[in-house]
Please model this.
Amino acid sequence: MMPTAAYIRRETLISMAINTALSLAFFCLVFGLGRRVPVWGVGGYVFDFGPQAFMIGLMATLVPGALARNALRKGLVAPWTGGSRLPHALLLRALAVALASTLIAVGVSAGILTIAGWTILSPPFALLGKLTFGAALALVVTPPGLRAALTPR
Model:
């Protein structure tokens, strides 16, 4: 049986890698690599933090949560004994994390870019920001989602 902390660490690293790769793919699809990226407006950089944060929050909670519950049922991982404040129901938990992630990401990105006064970004800089955000959000949301999934009920 794998210790809970080791399981959470491993699954978080996997989530970070997957969400970074997906952030790269969607950045290329939405913005491409050959043109400057507008910061404001529908389809702009700040706007894109909404769908990106929602999907990462949702999937970094939903998929690892389902896998963790299965691993817990099979006795492959030890249960989390610290409890969780997140909803026990997997879909409700994933939606709550996704919505919170969206609101925070759009607000913070808008605030930072307003203070910076940027209206357009170079593709490498914009991409680096999206990749960093994708990995960081997975790092933040995956462990509490896993702890909730591994909390026995």
Remarks:
- The two ends are 19 Å apart (CA to CA).
